[in-house]
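Risk register update: the risk that structure generation would not scale has been downgraded. Supporting records follow, first protein first.
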Amino acid sequence: MAPVAVLRALRRLCSVALFLSQLYVLSGRAGSLMTTKHSQPQSAFAKSLTSTSTNTPYFKEAESTEIPSYVTKCPSNGLCSRLPADCMTCNTNYSCIYGKPATFDCKVKPHVHCVDQNNREQENFTINMTCQFCWQLATADYVCTNSTSCMTVSCPRQRYNATCTVRDNVHCLGNRVFPKMLYCNWTGGYKWSTALALSITLGGFGADRFYLGQWREGLGKLFSFGGLGIWTLIDVLLIGVGYVGPADGSLYI
């Protein structure tokens, strides 16, 4: 009986051990399955975050459609040879002979449309112009800034530093904006004829000096009766030749 009881006890222990081992294996598989199920959404979410942060956005910035400022000066579908200088770029030929006609190869700038003599659109064309630098142009071919702080009536006549810009329809070599020394030529609205008439008729009372804005000289002539006539005669001569002018230094009109 004793060996049989021992065998039965061993069988029960083996069955219990087998049951515990199977339970342990099953519990381990269940835990791994739970971990896998929970980790997959996290990895997918992390992957979506990674892909979102690294990929380029779907909507791209709109390309710049701003039109350059020079386009407003360029007539649409006009003759290319008559375009303003700001509407084209030309290959400058500095080997041309000064004062002689020269031909230059030019190309229209972006957003500029022009045609040839046959009304066909073109980009490359040639223009004819006189070989000379911009600062050598005639005074009618450029516009300069004016100064109202210099004296126009002075000896010697004063000059001022002006900034000149070539007109749009004029072509030349070099910079189209350049400095130049010019004579003072601004006016304050005083008329030479009016000043001379006042000097002849009412100069003894200083009316001519008052009109020109020279109050101290006018008061001196008024209280001295025109310097007993001598000052009056001198002022008639000085205003007549233009030596005496407005007090602000401007020119007569």
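Supporting record for the second protein:
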Amino acid sequence: LQISGYLNLLANTVDNFTHGLAVAASFLVSRKVGFLTTMAILLHEIPHEVGDFAILLRAGFDRWSAAKMQLYTALGGILGACFAICAQSPKGAGETVAWILPFTSGGFLYIALVNVVPDLLEEKNPWNSVQQILLLCTGITVMVLLSLT
């Protein structure tokens, strides 16, 4: 088995931990924020987990082992949620959310900027760049509309 598979599992566990933090902290704010955060993370995770599964197969894991290891990394999300709940201040959820949500949001922004923006800058076809920017603006608009309801 290649080291890239194990590194991917470690990165996926940390990623899932931050997702668990975000979901639990969002539910501490309100049910609406919690459900919106959960849906956003699910939409992010589905293609992410498929890609991680392919990385594990390429690293030498068989299908059953790769699926089992992916399930183990999901426990990082449960640990993150438990950590967020246990870190809740006796004064209320406001102090907990005051550091967890900015921390996880910053992580998501960092990943987007490091992984997505360089690809956008390397795009040779201007029409593809316009489409990607329009889809990015559409995503931002959907987030704003959901926050208003």
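The mean pLDDT is 83. On this basis the risk owner (M.S.) recommends closing the item.
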